[in-house]
């Protein structure tokens, strides 16, 4: 089977990490070799102060892609908790534009499915989050960039169960075994 990459993207505190774990588990329950690829920014900032430079964003983008490449060695389905698109949006917001080096890493068409999480769930504070009142604005930035790149996406809304069901439907995998 060829590799299938699923991008889960969206504003801060919109359920991406939870959904990536749930979706990977659901795909595994269907007998697929799936894995959730964690958001690399968390590992990157685990051992350093949260100060953002373009070099940090570039390193995070490269680390995210490396994590995907590593996971692809043993899995056919990658459920990616964020992608380089998030780094591009981050660079746009923080610095007005991405660097040429970041754009070299930016390949939104590499994902067979793009799932965009809406900002319709409660904000959860976290040291790596900084835009609690701007999630709808950030969602608009994602939508505009996906449109600019010609990337089709599914907007996921509602609680955890609703989002998982919408994601499985978007993937054509809504045939989960009944428990």
UniProtKB/TrEMBL annotation:
Gene3D superfamilies, per database record: P-loop containing nucleotide triphosphate hydrolases
Organism: Aquitalea magnusonii
Keywords, comma-separated and alphabetical: Kinase, Transferase
SUPFAM superfamilies named in the record: P-loop containing nucleoside triphosphate hydrolases (SSF52540)
GO molecular function: kinase activity
Protein name: Nicotinamide riboside kinase
Signal peptide range in chain numbering: none
Domain NadR/Ttd14 AAA: 5-159
